[in-house]
Amino acid sequence: MPHIHWLITSPRLPAGLLSAAAWDVLCSGTAVFAAAESPLAVLLRDDDVEVTVVPPESAADRLLSSGGVWLAGPDGDETLAAAIGRRLPDSPGVEFELLYGSWDPPGARLLDLVAVIDRLRSPGGCPWDAAQTHRSLAPYLLEEAYETADAIASGDPAHLREELGDLLFQPLLHARLASEDTESGFDADDVAADVVAKLIRRHPHVFGDVTASDLDELGQRWDAIKAEEKPERRYAVDGVVSAQPALSLAAKFLSRVERAGLDVPVPAWPSAPVDGAADEVGDALLAAVAAARAAGVDAESALREAALRYADTARATEDRTS
């Protein structure tokens, strides 16, 4: 009775990482077939398992008549599997079994993206990608971040999925560029290793034996760990990226000052809004922008300068209280 074992394996894992069930079938003496040579076929032959390459157009006849193990290709050979499935009702006694030898681990498709980016940057790839630098790509990184934020606001999962993919492409492309620097370069694995180490280090309550009673304690410990990592930052407001939009820059300075427990005055609000009245706050900001335009002042630049002055005041306050 012919028995067809349709062996599915992950092309993103080393060929020998197979399940015990897969090895049992492959080493049972059952005939093994494949549509093309592959790393798994080479490995099996090294272990004295004969692998016969069969053209896909004749594979269905071969398998239905004699059975055997079919080493499915990277795409699963779905067309051939469908052809066999259509003929099974007319092939009494033939058994078909789908056998998984290995599965993609979580995040495995990131390897495909890294490979695609490498192809784009390599000779014979895309001239546009090959011409890019870290500096030329910087605007696209910001643009994709904003588009991702828009997708989050839209509440559309499909839109968010697409924009997250576009955003993910950017750091991996930057890492590919960096790997071309033979003196001080790094690659995507280095970037991933660094952030993994940082996340583990900054979450001792998850990966260590430290306990935290509430979110405030977590925040304080986070700040303490960052202070140990970056001793060059003397003030609470140091390390804030000044190139970000002025509103977020001001908010970040205010957050840092509040978390540090500093008493740093801010300009008086001309008309205090009711708590939680987002419309009033928005209207006041819009009015401020309109007033700035009428006065010939760039509101973004003015707010940035005010935020930077506030940061200087915070540093001076910290000096006096330390």
TrEMBL record:
Record-level Gene Ontology MF annotations: nucleoside triphosphate diphosphatase activity
CDD domains in the record: NTP-PPase_MazG_Nterm
Record has Hydrolase as a keyword: yes
Domain NTP pyrophosphohydrolase MazG-like: 132-207
Keywords, sorted A to Z: Hydrolase
GO biological process, one term: UTP catabolic process
Top-rank taxon: Bacteria
Tagged with keyword Ribonucleoprotein: no
Any Pfam family: MazG
Protein's recorded name: XTP/dITP diphosphohydrolase
Organism from which the protein derives: Stackebrandtia albiflava
Lineage: Bacteria, Bacillati, Actinomycetota, Actinomycetes, Glycomycetales
